[in-house]
Amino acid sequence: MRPAPPAPLPLLASLPLAVAGGLAAWAAFPGSASDAGWWFNAPVAVALLSIATYGARARRGALLGLAFGWAFSIPHVAWSGTYVGVLPWMALATACAAFYTVLGLALPRLQRARWGLGPLAVACGWIAVEALAERQPFEGFPWGKLAFSQADAPTLGLAALGGAPLVSFGVTLAGALLGAAVLALARVPAPPGAPRPARRARPAVVAVALAAVVTGAGALVPRPTAAEDGTARVAAVQGNTPEEGLDFNAERRAVLDNHASATLGLARRIEDGTSPQPDLVLWPENSSDIDPFRNPDARAVIDRAVDAVGAPTLVGAVLQGPGESLSNAGLVVNPGTGIDPDQRYVKQHPAPFAEYMPYRSFFRTFTDKVDLVPRDFVHGDRVGLLDMGGVRVGDVICFEVNFDGIVRDTVRAGAQVLVVQTNNATFGMSNEAVQQLAMSRLRAVESGRSVVHVSTVGVSAIITPDGAAHQETSLFTQAVLEADVPLRSTQTVATRVGAAPEVVLTALGVLLLLLARPGARGGRRGRDPRREDAGTPTSPKSPVSL
């Protein structure tokens, strides 16, 4: 008699397992269980959810997916409630958890994929759900992509081949294989007194070995850092803000003055020979929330600092108009000539509920917090490629670092180095800043470019093309980061192939879902009519057939 597959777990066992999986996913990200995060928990999270949903009905799978999603998302986006309260935080966490509800609905069927491809189907299904979260609703919120937990993992190298989707795929495939190994070991044991044949453990051993190979494969991918187009001396200015929270810009002039004074301090060090002359200076998002086109005093402060430091400077500014709207922009200011009218980038992807309020009147019926965003920011209509003294700089503003296409299009346009301008003051001392820095580290490997991650309050860092972060600053301090960064023009495989890996993996997941074996009916596994008389149970393929 061949061993039968393990029976589905009862709800009282599967529900805690799903919750444990969600907490494991959260612990994988930076700033959660440790400063760097425990990246190896990401495949464990996938394994736990796979085991919890194995053999379950679709409705139970959806419930388990929701439990996983809440356990992951509530602590992961806790920074969103730092100053606006519990309701917006819970709303965002529930919206994120909804995607895992869809995933949980599909997981039981995905694990029944034909030809022993259950682990592959689970991984592809996970990528499909992450792709959906990047696009819907309200233009997407992919903050919880498992790829963003892997900045210190060997799987990070996969970003150079297929971007964030391939990194997530490596993590989820390894996790699904681990889950399959556990399920293989859970098959019916040998009769009492008989030795357990080694062959019964063979599928589990093979699955674990494959999971190790998948996890380590990224370490073999080259991460070139050569300065193909020379180097550029950059100075990134973290000016700090007068206070944390939503009122960080109540003293907008103080924020501007902080960045100007830090730049003037750099200019004095250049003059006395203790700091080299930079080729370009980078200020963060919201470093001037006073529109320099409409306020001569603000423009004079900026011009004075730029003239003193003697280098093209990228200034994050909030611009008035058109009409009652606002623009979140990066402005290139040159010494002697001021703002360059031709070198301006307007954020293409403003953050919903933070920079614009969709369906304002509808959401006001739930909370008056919608009016904390009194005016909407417009969407920019071109990539952030800027010429700064002959250096082609790719500008990515804050929330945009989440999105594969925005970063990729900027590199394809010719960026030699990337800058992520951000403002983390709204989120206080929470984990938001280190989570975002991890995204920039992935983008460095994905694009093969240095990334200067500069924040008003931290965490700021200089990131080399291999994904290593240097000179990380502390939160709510003033600092100036100085470094020679390599300029590169070669495009990685990930940049060239674009969204193709995500599309292929999603399509494969859908195909395997449609072709999966039908599930049990009436709460029992089906029996082969030809074996009914003999009373011998069928033997569907094990969770991993090799």
Can you identify the CATH class of the largest domain?
Alpha Beta
The proportion of residues in beta strands is: 5-15%
Coarse shape: globular
What is the CA-atom radius of gyration, in angstroms?
A: 26 Å
Mean of residue pLDDT? 90
Q: Let me know the CATH homologous superfamily of the largest domain.
A: Carbon-nitrogen hydrolase
Tell me the total number of β-strands.
Answer: 12
Order of helices and strands: HHHHHHHEHEHEEEHEEHEHEEEEHH
CATH T-level fold name of the largest domain: Nitrilase/N-carbamoyl-D-aminoacid amidohydrolase
Query: What structural class do you assign from the helix and strand content?
Result: alpha/beta
Specify the number of helices. 14
- Spatial strand order of the main sheet: 5-4-3-2-1-12
- Report low-confidence residues grouped into runs of 5 or more: 522-542
Overall number of structural domains: 2
Largest beta sheet, briefly? 6 strands, mixed
Second-tier CATH architecture of the largest domain = 4-Layer Sandwich
Helix content: 40-55%
The rounded distance between the terminal residues' Cα atoms is: 20 Å
Topology (SSEs and partners):
Blueprint: H1 11-27, H2 41-53, H3 58-76, H4 86-110, H5 118-133, H6 159-185, H7 198-217, E1 231-238, H8 252-271, E2 280-282, H9 296-309, E3 313-320, E4 326-334, E5 338-346, H10 360-364, E6 385-388, E7 391-397, H11 404-412, E8 417-422, H12 432-447, E9 451-455, E10 461-463, E11 469-470, E12 479-486, H13 493-497, H14 500-515
Parallel strand pairs: 1-2, 2-3, 7-8, 8-9
Antiparallel strand pairs: 1-12, 3-4, 4-5, 6-7, 9-10, 10-11
